[in-house]
Amino acid sequence: MRFAAIFLLTLLLLGPTSVEAQALKLQKGDHISVIGNTTADRLQHHAWLETYVHALHPELDLTFRNLAFPGDELKSRPREDNFGSPDQWLTKNESDVVFAFFGFNEAMRGPEAMDGFLKNLADVIDGMLSQTYNGDSPPRIVIFSPIAHENLKSRHLPDGSKNNINLKLYSGGMQVVCKQKNVVFVDLFNSSLALYEQAAKPLTMNGIHLLDHGNKALASVIIPKLFDRDVPADDKVAKLREAVLDKNYHWFSRYRVVDGYNVFGGRSKLAWFGQSNADVMKREMEIFDIKTVNRDKIVWAVAQGS
Predict the structure, then answer these.
(1) How confident is the model at residue 59, as a pLDDT?
(2) What is the chain's mean pLDDT, rounded?
(3) Residue 105 CB: number of other CB atoms within 10 A?
């Protein structure tokens, strides 16, 4: 734990907020890719964060693609054969900005595994910064800490107290790595802990997976951290959120295609009359790509009041 101790000492010297997120500057036409664990995956099904970002930047015609899978870790992202590497997918999305949500699963391994996790985080950041996914420049990276474990006061579920010790430790280490690498860091651990204390009803279904209103609450604290602006009122974004959810449904159907073993994996090369499963599904996915792009345009139009 030598390096972990150094990180914690550095964190104490820097103070608790000295490397908190600075404002993120988005540019016209930016492509934003979301990677990470279940926290990241569930964002697309509730769409609050993405909706707020579009609402605050209607003139930028932003493109969001969610590449998260439940259980993803920094260096462990299992997929079917021939699915494509993380870098290949970030390139397909021509990613200008990457929102990365990691650390929750890794923190379950405890303090003794923290050194390895922080090294992996530094390696992953360096690896992404060495790429030009958009064909022109390295991506602007935002690293989000894991959320806290909510105590649902149920005898059937853990109260999260032991888990939160590790999550706080890992979040602090992530903060220091991001400071060293000069990338934006957003502390979700302390923010979510405060949200749980203030909430009139639970924000998670099981202590760790956010419900719809939980993701809305989390988005409401992310937006000021990233953009130094308040979230718009619900009645201002209702139609926009519907458009974003529709776009996300089509992208999810494309990226998280059902039965990947038949599409990418071992059965994908089975052929009948000279046509394989992969041939058929490749065309299907091309269609979903087009349908998703068409819905990007609807999102932009609604964001601009059309």
Answers:
(1) 98
(2) 93
(3) 18
